[in-house]
Structures are given as C-alpha cells and as structure tokens.
Amino acid sequence: MAPAIFDEMGLSDQEVRTAYRTLRDWLKETPTEILTLRREEAETFFRRIGITFAVYGEGGDPERIIPFDIIPRILEAAEWEQISAGLIQRVKALNAFIADVYGKQEILKAGLIPAEQVLGNETYRPEMRGLEVAHNVYTHIAGIDMVRVGPEEFYVLEDNCRTPSGVSYMLENREITMRLFPDLFSRYNVAPVDHYCDDLLHTLSSVAPRHCEGDPTVVVLTPGVYNSAYYEHSFLADQMGVELVEGPDLYVKNDVVYMRTTQGALRVDVIYRRVDDEFLDPSVFNKDSVLGVSGLMSAYRAGNLTLTNAVGAGIADDKAIYTYVPRMIEFYLGEKPILKNVPTHRCGEPNELAYVLDRLDELVVKEVHGSGGYGMLVGPKATKEERAVFAERIKAAPEKYIAQPTLALSTCPTFVNEGVAPRHVDLRPFILSGKEIRVVPGGLTRVALKEGSLVVNSSQGGGTKDTWVLRS
Amino acid sequence: MLSRTADNLFWIARYMERAENIARMLRVTDRLSLMPSGTLGANAGAEWASTLIVSGTESAFYEKFEEATPENVIFYLAFDRDNPSSIRSCIETARRNARAVRTALTTEQWEALNGTWLELPAWDESRMRGSGLHRFLDWVKERSLLFHGATVATMLRRDSYYFTRLGTFIERGDNTARILDVKYHLLLPENVEVGGGIDFYQWASILRAVSGYRSYHVLYKEGIKPWLIADFLILQEQMPRSLISCAADIKACLDKLAEQYGQRHESHRVAGQIYSQLCFGKVDDIFGQGLHEFLSQFIEQNNRLGHEISRSYLVG
Prior knowledge:
Shape of chain A: globular
Oligomer: heterodimer
Largest interface: A-B, 24 and 26 residues
Strand content of chain B: under 5%
Largest sheet of chain A: 5 strands, mixed
C-alpha cells in the first residue's frame, strides 16, 4: 500500500497551500514559451559563469551543468523555524559526540553506542585522541539532508559532517532566480541567503588557533580543477576574499604551515579543507597522496593550525552511527529530538538482517560508506533480478548495509518536458558552527527530474531548485 | 598572493597575446600569398614556410608534415593540439589556467576567457581559406582585445594586475620582434631586386600585422621605408606594440611590484638594461649590426627577463 504523496504546492486549486498561491497564479499567467526561454537563459548563465561540476573519465562533456529547475520551492517562516531549531540541536549533539569519542568517551561508557561501532569504524581517526580543538567544534560546516513526507513531517535522511558540498548552488540559484523572475520574487518576502559567505568567514576566523592575534590567515584547500566540486571551492574562496590553495602551495616547517607567495612564505592559520582525511597528509595517511601537505597533522597537533572540518569528523556521519543520533541528542543535551530520524535497520544485526531480506521489495538499502546515490537499492523500483543480486551482496557483508522504509518524499511543481509537473525533492540546509552556531534560511533543494524517481543525486539525473524561506 | 596564482595570471596573458599574434601573422601571410602570382615568381608559397620560422614552430611542424602548404600551415598554427602554440592550444591553455585561478580574475576577465573557449569549437577547421579564415582570425583578435580590455578596465591595480600585464608585454615584445624578423626569413626570389614591388608589399604587410599601417603614416608622413619601419617598431615609444614600448611597460610593472612589495630583484636590473639600450638605440646602428642579429639578441634578452621574473616571483 503506497502512502499518499504530499505535494508542497497542492495538486488542485482547492488544495493549494497559502505560501504557493501567488506562485500558482503566476504559473497560470505565464506561458510555457516564456518558461522555456527562461530555462535556456539560466543554462547559458551557468555555462558562461562556469558553474559546472566536473565528471572525468566517463566520456562526454567533462564539465557538466547540474540541471536547474526554474520554479522555486517555498517554505513558510514557521516551517523554517522548526527546521532550523532542529538543525541547530542536531549539529550541537553531533559536535558533542565527536568531541566525546576523541575525548572521554562517555557515551561509550554509558553503553548507549557499542564501542566497536565507533572505535572499529573506518572513519574513526585515533590520531585525533586527546587533541584539543577551538570551541570543541569538529564539524564547522555541516550539511543535513532532509526529506518531507507531510505538512508537519520532516525526517533527517543523512548527516554530512566532513566536506558537504552544494552551498554554492544554493547561492547561485538565488542569484539566477532573482535575475530571471524579478516580478515574481518581489511579490514574496523572501529571507536573503547572500550573507552565507560572510558567516562562513566569521565561523572560520572564530576557530583560529590561540597564537592568532588580529585577523587569522584563512585559506580554502582544494584538490584542484579536476575535482567535481572545484567550482564551489573557487566560489567560496572568492566570496570570502581568501586564497584558494592546492597542496603544493603549502609546506610545513617547524610545525607551522606556510603558503608560497610572491613575497615569500606566509603563515596560514585556518584551512577550510575540501580534501578528504585520507589525502590530507601523506606522512600520516595515504602515502601516495599528492593533494595534501606533508607535516600538516603535526602542525595541527601542535596547535598551530585549525583544520575545518576537523580530521575524524566523519565518525558522526557514518550511516551506521546515524541511527544513534536521537540518543546523542538526549544524552548530551538532555532534549527531545526536534527532527526525526528515518527508522533504520542495521543489517549487521542478525534479526534485522532477516527482516530486511524478507522485505527487500519495500525497503531502500544503502551502503554504510556509500555516497552520491551509488551502491544503493530502491526496493520498490528494482526488478526481481536486481533485488536477488543485491541480496547476495548484503549477505556477503551485512555490516556494510543499512535499510530504511521507502519514504513518500514530498513533491514540488517542476518545469519538465511535459510542462509543470510534481517531482520529488529533498533539502540540504547548511549549518555553521564556530564560536556560535548559524543557519542561513534556505538550503539546496535537489529534485528528481524523472517522473516518479526518488533519486535526487546530481550524478544520477537530479537537478536543483532555489529554496525560498519566507519571512514572517 | 600565491606564487602559483601569479604564475597562472602571467601565462594566461601570454597565451592570449600569443593567440592574437599568431592570428596577426597568419593574416599577413595570407595577404602576402594573394599578391599577383607573377611577382612572387618561383618562390610562391615561401611566405607560408616563413610564418613557421617566425612563430618558432618550424622543426616541430616538419616532424608532422612534409610540406608547408597553406592548408597544413593554417591547420598547424590555428588548430593543431600537437602544437602548444596553436591558437586553439593557446585558448585552451589560457582557459585551463583561468579555471585554476578563478578567484584572482574579475568576472569580466573570466567571461572573456570562458566565452572564447566556449565559442572556439564552433569554428569549422575545414573552411579556413579566404573569407572563412579572415573571419576566424578577426574573431581571435577581437577575443584577445576583449580580454585585454577587461583586464585594464576591471582589475585592481595591485600585484595580480601587474603580473597579468607583465605576461602581455613580455609576449608582445617577443612577437613584434618575430614579426619584424619575417623579412629576414622570407627569401626573396633571386631575380627580384631588393626594394622592388614585392619588397614594398612585404614591409607594408608587417605594418598591417601590428595594426600600424595608419599610425606609421601619421607619424612619419612618408612612404614605406624599411629603416623607418624598423624605427617605428623598435624605437618608437608612441607605438604600443614597439619593442621600446613593451620594455617601458615591463619596467613600469616591475617598479609597481617593487613599490608594493618593498623589494627589488635581478629582474628589475635586466628590465632596466633592456629599456635603456632601446632608449639610446639608433636605427642606423641597428642596420649596421644587422637587423636580424639585433632582433635575435632582443628575443633572447626578453626571454631571459621572463625567466628572471619567474625566479623572482612565480616559483615561490
């Protein structure tokens, strides 16, 4: 029995929800040709600015545009208040958890999370034990993936505590929407998002190492132009007015990090790194890495450097750890979780495994360490053969999989080939934690452009939308 | 600023300038090849071979092609990815560098470079004779000028700007010297007197290549005379593509960097030396020494200056 799908606009004139009334009228009075024209303009704009994500080694155009859907998604002020309170609460707990597992390990001692799930986890970095970080913050920039299934019902699908990307699309989507539809935009009272990069710089500066007096030197570390999110790295560095560096631009001497400049060496205090843990320092992690900087970890341990996000923050966004987040919130904050988790079955536990294998046709199965929509099975959409093949993979290594019920993701009006039609969406807001915690009102809405599809990942045919949070 | 960023800016400007100058050279060559066939005598086609020498691509070209036919030369200089100095390679390299230093470029500069790169594939390589070639070469020149214009009009006057401009002027000086040197390499048919009809067309074409045909007449109010053209392209500071003008611009950029950084390097000395030699140079002496020898020496010195700039700032 398929649960009813919630459309955020409302599928008929009688049902149309308040926030969408103006948009609905506007859609009715705007001819399809105009929408098509605007969509082409948007694409030209993205190409010209070079807002692309790079996909190398698959043939075809290596620099692709993530399809942009021109119809904005709208959230009411009250809805956002609830979401943002939930996000702040959740990220506080995640940071407390990371600090704990690299410190006193109280949550493990209390027996709330099995110790081996944490200490034996691939993402756990023993190098971080006992290292003090500014304001006890580990995940300075977090992206929390959420879905909605009803007017009041939001679920967190996944936490991204390492190097979440997509915020540049949130900002550029707003830019382009204001450019394409100034009249529609002005009919609404939309909370601005443009101060995100100022907030980001504030956050990064607020966690500078102790020796820093005055403005710390902040840089963005990118793996380089071949990285799929390179545009975003350059965009953020640009908006913050800081240098965008690659590994070879930096070196470490006497536990201090320097960058090579036209005036000689310049000390670096805070690195917003978009390079994964494994590649950060070839002298500690992956020896073959050319993306990192040798000696970075020892500078970090010596307290001469802040890495954002902290090394080892990935322990909090592991899909197996995800199931414990509500417990973390209660344990560290003594609060009831505002945002719900999706009920999740850990295949590593024998009776859960049996349950999952029994109901593969109803469940979504994900690899614990997978991302980007790869390595996952959407049971109801898969063929019998696909499910059989996947079942064997699960049996071979059950601890590597979790399963969740297929949620009836909400839909939003989307401009596709057939015209304006409902398509499934998710939402990734971004939470900044430093001396204080900030959330910009908005986020990245991803939309599955194929009819009925639930996969919103850009690598699998998903697009993005501008997300409007209305002011009260 | 990051040394890598400065290096990238320097080379973006060099590659855009190079693309423009290759386009200018091809334009001249094509024009020369249109001269009435009688006047060129047995040596018809020599101008295409000379273009390869001038652009410094001769030996690599003959590794790939047997003969310097117009088709081969145009393809090699305009579109061949095997030639790192072809117009296509220059545009692609400049855009690749630009992508790596997006943050150091203004939006206008980026759009000029990215737009050029986006439009490039639309040009049909198989239709590059006659007006098709002219349209393409004009487009290249326009795009390069757009980039220069964006640079001058939108960039903050600080280190990043001066490194970009240094790339332009180092490359431009080199290229003007090479274009002028065409004369040496373009072998005249034996039976044609120097100073005859062909000679006139060749010198006039050089002026056209550097957009100096009208300027020359404004300044000298005389007909086409080789020593005046040499004076114009080497020693005339009012002529923005002349060697002395490039040397003066390079020196000014380096002085601004010294001012901002409070530090001088060997590159400042070399730049000063080149500039003062040109300041006190006389066209009679240049012809006495031999125009070709003089130009070869300049190209070498200019090259050395490029290395020194790199050593002072760009390798970090």
